[in-house]
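Following the same procedure, backbone shapes were mapped to integers, as reproduced here:
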Amino acid sequence: MNDRLAQQFFAHDYHDRGVQKWQGYFLSDHTQHLREHHQAVQQATTWERIPAMNHTEISRKLQYAVQKQQPVTLIWKQTRGLETQYFQAQGRVTGHEAGLVRIDGQLIPFELIVAIKRKN
């Protein structure tokens, strides 16, 4: 009797909305990825364009900035899978050793830095 009641319910009373009930539903990871991508696009359009440099030139400018305690702008990149994101840090370089650069307390791997510019 229960099977017959269930068949009658699904045949006459229940209306499956299918995909409609899932529209507008995003996973939190997907929402976070979209937010990060949006922020990266906004930053890329507002940053000053600094041409890429070789590591010798970057090292030379870093040493000069440390000696003179001058603020700088660093641009570095991170690659995750097929996606490359660029980041920017501004401030005084307070350390440059063991493959890491410390700028206002933030550690950045030297090999990821693509450009540096002294702030005027």
